[in-house]
Amino acid sequence: MEPQLGPEAAALRPGWLALLLWVSALSCSFSLPASSPSSLVSQVRTSYNFGRTFLGLDKCNACIGTSICKKFFKEEIRSDNWLASHLGLPPDFLLSYPANYSDDSKIWRPVEIFRLVSNYQNEISDRRICASASAPRTCSIERVLRKTERFQKWLQAKRLTPDLVQGLASPLLRCPSQRLLDRVVRRYAEVADAGSIFMDHFTDRDKLRLLYTLAVNSHPILLQIFPGAEGWPLPQYLGSCGRFLVSTSTRPLQEFYGAPPDQAADLAYQLLGVLESLRSNDLNYFFYFTHIDAGMFGVFNNGHLFIRDASAVGVIDKQEGSQEATRAGENKDIFSCLVSGCQAQLPSCESVSEKQSLVLVCQKLLPRLLQGRFPSPVQDDIDSALAQCGDSTRPDPEVLGAASWLKHILRPLRTCDSRFAYRYPDCKYNDKF
Fold first, then answer.
1. What does residue 335 show for φ and ψ, rounded to 5 degrees?
2. How far apart are CA 309 and CA 307, in angstroms?
3. Which residues are bridge partners to 77 per DSSP?
4. pLDDT digit string (tens) for 388-413?
């Protein structure tokens, strides 16, 4: 039986028709926390039905069958911030929401539900899609996107090649190599038989999902192709579709700006280590940030720092070389304009320097963690290293050298105790930690 909507929810009923394809709200089929008594099972079922009907998941054909929808429908993802009995919805202006996840209904762990683009961007994107086909303000987004020239090329393609992603605004695809694109296809988790570099096993809808995700926000793709389980500084991918994603929960770095000096030193040391691993790794990919803010980094409960938002991360293949993704406005279409203006131009790949991410971090993040936190002369040394590391006029070797010097200063300022569970108690017995 379909649930009855309250006055506030009923006022939103016209929005159902706009959710034919991509679920632009994150409040999908939320239910009660894992500790809920069995007497509230009926309320859980109400929440399930409410999320399915009100939020359009039963109409969202492009998302049906994806890992994220399966987890919502099987109630493997639950939130205790709002209850089904009141048909409550979360605030629609937030970019992330806390929840719990379990694949066995016994052990639950915190996760975050991320909105990959804001509500405002959603509305602008939908209008652009409809306008591109001279359609009314609301239209079948899937039908419009299927008719585009780019997607017709995708339908015919057996392999994802650089020409198929030219013009997309994602930094990941700014200078794509064939090796990188093969990795995207081989590790794409939303198809039944992942593992091949060819797209023979992709359905039409699989191709549309992948293309749309690459065009809107490449963060979910990076989590899949460079997983944390293999040592990459990224949280676990738990599923995505369209404009929302679920991944392992972290606390944003800005929450630690007032942390004790030893914790601040540890986080700064880790942050420099993350950038070092992105610059130099066994796979010979060079990762860089196009811009940086504290919300892009997060800290797990064990004290381990990870990249929380990789949407601004670009990748250059140092082994195979890369091709420029966009030249003089070539291959611009509606997929190029979903989250930014169609006239936006990405800088040349050759303009990306080794020092780029370090300069941004030393200018914008590390001073908030480290300045005024330590006694002299240690603080003087830290300030001097930060000034050199954040100086964009210095050549690459000098900036990299300043970062290395800063890591050397910070290392003995870290302590070894249970607050840093990611390296404790190993740090008691091994200087490596």
1. -70, -20
2. 6
3. 101
4. 999 999 999 999 999 999 999 999 99
- In this model, does residue 31 exceed pLDDT 70? no
* Co-location of 260 and 113 in the same domain: no
pLDDT tens digit sequence for 281-314 = 999 999 999 999 999 999 999 999 999 999 999 9
Same-domain check for residues 265 and 405: yes
Residue 358: give the domain boundaries.
249-324+347-427
Count other Cβ atoms within 10 Å, centred on residue 65. 15
Tokens of 247: 């991944």
Tokens of 293: 């803010």
pLDDT band at residue 64 using 50, 70 and 90 as cut-offs: low
Instruction: Check pLDDT > 50 for residue 247.
Output: yes
Cα(224)–Cα(247) distance, integer angstroms: 11
- Sheet containing 305-307: give its strands across: 251-252, 297-299, 305-307
Determine the 3-state secondary structure of 365 from DSSP: coil
Write down the pLDDT at residue 137: 67
- Torsion, CA 4, CA 9, CA 14, CA 15, rounded to 10: -120
Rg (CA), the chain: 23
Give the CB-side neighbour count of residue 274, counting CA atoms within 13 A.
Answer: 25
Task: Report d(CA 162, CA 320) in Å as an integer.
Answer: 13
Amino acid at 307: I
Q: Answer whether residue 308 is part of any domain.
A: yes
User: From the CB of residue 38, how many other CB atoms can be counted at a distance below 10 Å?
Assistant: 7
Cα angle vertex 396, ends 364, 256, to 5°? 25
Report residue 176's pLDDT band, with 50, 70 and 90 as the boundaries. Answer: very high
Which of 355-368 are b and which e, b meaning 16 or more Cβ less than 10 Å from the residue's Cβ? bbbbbbbbbebbbe
Is 125 within the bounds of a domain?
yes
Question: At CA 181, angle to CA 175 and CA 185, rounded to 5?
Answer: 155
CA angle, 10 as apex, 21 and 23 as ends, to 5°? 20
